Amino acid sequence: MTHLQAGLSPETLEKARLELNENPDTLHQDIQEVRDMVITRPDIGFLRTDDAFILRFLRARKFHHFEAFRLLAQYFEYRQQNLDMFKSFKATDPGIKQALKDGFPGGLANLDHYGRKILVLFAANWDQSRYTLVDILRAILLSLEAMIEDPELQVNGFVLIIDWSNFTFKQASKLTPSMLRLAIEGLQDSFPARFGGIHFVNQPWYIHALYTVIRPFLKEKTRKRIFLHGNNLNSLHQLIHPEILPSEFGGMLPPYDMGTWARTLLDHEYDDDSEYNVDSYSMPVREVEKELSPKSMKRSQSVVDPTVLKRMDKNEEENMQPLLSLD
What we know:
This protein is of the alpha/beta class and 327 residues long. The protein has two domains: 3-81, Helicase, Ruva Protein, domain 3 (Orthogonal Bundle), CATH 1.10.8; 91-267, CATH 3.40.525.10. It is built from 16 helices and five strands. A five-stranded mixed β-sheet has the order 1-2-3-4-5. The protein is globular and about 50 Å long. The relative contact order is 0.13.
């Protein structure tokens, strides 16, 4: 075991060897091979290339050198292309802070039976008057940056549960194709995290419809790890034990405290509120909209046009049947 593996338990070391092809005898050579590829992309500013940083990309891509380098390049390229998102990229930024305090994201105290960190999002908590969807994405990315410092999570990864209870049709209309693409690029294509499962619970029909928008742009591996449970919490419990879940998910623990993770990041500044203009970080979404092209974002025949959704009256909303379900 090298010093780069010092934070791993014996069980996780074995998991890294078996599942990720991590070999302590060749670890430094693996890292150097990725580092040597940096010169092939002079258009990207690689702000970090130290051993510990490159290692998390190797783990995210099971030590396939080129795939790890491509993820590393996309990580920095995403930040170059969305500069406004990463200005004031800290927990005390007003938009990020307000999103964090509303539980975007939350993190459960207990790991699942695979050692994965369980992240939770309660979608209806989004207050459109106080912060934007881009702020929520920034808060999630910032949280992942903090969590991925833990080598155990680099190996074991994460699970995400999104509760769509009381998420309104009006809120859903803000999830534009450009905003969804920004999130997909930031989380799926540009971040060194292993997601073992993404669970939707209590999703209304229009979230099913939005899923058809993003599905063509998800990797096959990602699609296989998305579970649409609807109101069937038993199917969720088959994958995540109720003993470690809060009561909102039919678990045995007390209701989740939305400020838990925010207090960890903000510490004594948690209660220090300041004014914030919700338009401050709308630019990245407009930039993405300008860059949309048939090549970069082909719309499949299954895509639901948001303008059509907006025209549906309340009766149509109530009568529309879910597209997918595990009920």
